[in-house]
Amino acid sequence: MRVPFKLSAWLTNSARLIMHLNSVSDGAVLTVRVDGTETFRTNLANLDGGYQVNNEYDVEFTVNLPSGNHLVEIRNPGGDWFYLDWVGLEQVLRATYPGGWEPSPAAIGLQGDRESLLYVVAPDASYPAGATNATLPLQQGKSLTLSNWTSGPFLAQWFDPATAQRLNDTQATTTNGNLTLPLPEFREDLAAALYPPPSLLAIGFAGDRAFHFRLDSEPGGPCVIEKSPNLSAWASFL
């Protein structure tokens, strides 16, 4: 490295700069400055006497950083180059956006006549909000809006795609062509089956002692049919 490498960030307590050194040439010097003040310096000997990037060092240098908003610079005031594989900052505060805007979950879906499928990805799991985060924050109080949607109420059954575990169910009613579904808590992604809630309609009478009903439900959905002699005490029928 010959050109200064600069990082500007808001840092919290116990922040650190980590640099992984691969190889050096003759006379290289690694320094770190914070807001223009040098806080770290080390001379880098050419261990193998060569001039190739061959992982001769394979070592990490760590520099503690103060909390707050700082400009961190990695410099080489020496006579020749050194090669860093990567640079990392720990304990960086999350950036905020003007007006309190926050990235929304990304979604894709397939709409059917009665049943639709949804796949939702947390904003911190997709570019640009935080695709490199190893530990994703819990998503709470989020929602997803489907536009140009059919009128009426809808029920969403949510699942964890990695385990197929069923999570919460949420309901919403289309307003002005938009269906806004509350999302359950999640960290990475969600999958859902979306359909109108089941309904039971009275069609008419069959003779003197029987009713005709019609059950409308999503294709293949589980149903429980019960019977009652007095419309008060119910027991399983099928």
Quickly list its features:
238 residues, mainly beta, Jelly Rolls, Immunoglobulin-like, 17 strands, 0% helix, rod-shaped
Give the mean pLDDT: 88
Total domain modules: 3
What is the percent of helical residues? Answer: under 10%
- Name of the CATH architecture of the largest domain: Sandwich
Query: What top-tier CATH class of the largest domain fits best?
Result: Mainly Beta
CATH topology of the largest domain: Immunoglobulin-like
Question: From the alpha-carbon coordinates, what is the Rg to the nearest angstrom?
Answer: 30 Å
Total count of helical runs of at least 4 residues: 0
Task: Report how far apart the termini are.
Answer: 75 Å
Structure classification:
mainly beta
* Counted beta strands: 17
Which residue ranges are poorly predicted, with pLDDT under 50 across at least 5 consecutive positions? none
Q: From N to C, what is the helix and strand string?
A: EEEEEEEEEEEEEEEEE
Q: Approximately how much beta-strand content do the residues carry?
A: over 45%
CATH superfamily of the largest domain: Golgi alpha-mannosidase II
Structural overview:
By secondary structure, the chain is mostly beta strands. It folds into three domains: 5-92, Sandwich (Jelly Rolls); 99-195, Golgi alpha-mannosidase II (Immunoglobulin-like), CATH 2.60.40; 199-236, no CATH class. 0% of the residues lie in helices and 50% in strands. It has no helices and 17 strands. The strands form five sheets. Strands 1, 2, 3, 4, 5 and 6 form a six-stranded antiparallel sheet that branches. A hairpin with a 5-residue loop joins β14 and β15. The chain is rod-shaped and about 105 Å long. The termini are far apart. 16% of the residues are buried.
